[in-house]
Automatic annotation (TrEMBL):
Domain of life: Bacteria
Protein name, entry field: ABC transporter ATP-binding protein
MF-aspect GO terms: ATP binding; ATP hydrolysis activity
UniProt cross-references to SUPFAM superfamilies, sorted A to Z: P-loop containing nucleoside triphosphate hydrolases (SSF52540)
Family named by the database record: Belongs to the ABC transporter superfamily.
ABC transporter domain ranges (all copies): 1-220
């Protein structure tokens, strides 16, 4: 069985690209292959035309996972988790200062650096996971369903943080979600996956209002209160 087949997907520098599709469509498999967590039997993942290294801790692609309760080591303090992702060569004082800067960047009190993850809420843990990803100085961040495990009341704050970080830092982000409203909010472009293939892609406003593929229309029709227009042939 092939989970991802013949996918060609580009994340332009400084842009957020949404990747949508139903469960089992291959979204997370594609993300894991990009960061070396799933085998790549054909094709390649490239960055600026060069193959992306999939070994080693400090990779140019960093992933933030869906479950904030399992993505942080419960035995490590928040500060240790964030510092672990940083490139080598900094003194202890420099690493501590950078941890404080990153926590402040994601709106976590730097004093929490000495706390264990068990002291934090799900939303706070996901903010720490974002700080850890940023600590690696990545070229691209892959956010895999990062709000789906959070309470609705917290999801908006995390999405606002993603938009804020992207705007202030010029981040390149592949934002994976099954929630079309979330993708519309954060992404300038969107790709639609079905059964391991990208069936449609383009500017978010166009794809989610005038879809050209039947599957995209099916996804939109399943959203309560949504209406779509067929794109002109």
């Amino acid at each position: 069985m092939t989970a991802v087949d013949g996918v060609s997907l580009e994340v332009p520098e400084g842009q957020v690209v949404g990747l949508v599709g139903e469960s089992g469509s291959g979204k997370s498999t594609l993300a894991k292959a990009a960061v070396g967590l799933a085998p790549l039997t054909a094709g390649r993942i490239s960055l600026g035309g060069a193959p992306v290294p999939t070994r080693g801790r400090h990779r140019p692609l960093q992933m933030v996972f869906q479950d904030p309760y399992s993505s942080l080591d419960p035995r490590m303090t928040i500060g240790e988790s964030v510092a672990e992702a940083m490139p080598p060569g900094r003194s202890r004082a420099q690493r501590r200062a950078e941890v404080e800067r990153l926590l402040d960047l994601v709106h976590i009190d730097p004093a929490a650096a000495s706390a264990l993850p068990s002291r934090l809420s799900g939303g706070q843990r996901q903010r720490v996971a974002l700080a850890r990803a940023l600590g690696a100085n990545p070229r691209v961040i892959i956010a895999d369903e990062i709000t789906s495990a959070l309470d609705v009341s917290i999801q908006g704050a995390v999405l606002n943080l993603v938009r804020e970080l992207q705007r202030e830092l010029g981040l390149s982000i592949l934002f994976i979600s099954h929630n079309l409203a979330v993708v519309r909010y954060v992404a300038s472009h969107v790709a639609v996956m079905r059964q391991g293939r990208v069936v449609e892609h383009g500017p978010t406003a166009r794809v989610l209002t005038e879809p050209s593929h039947d599957y995209t229309r099916e996804l939109l029709a399943a959203v309560p209160g949504r209406t779509t227009r067929r794109s002109r042939p």
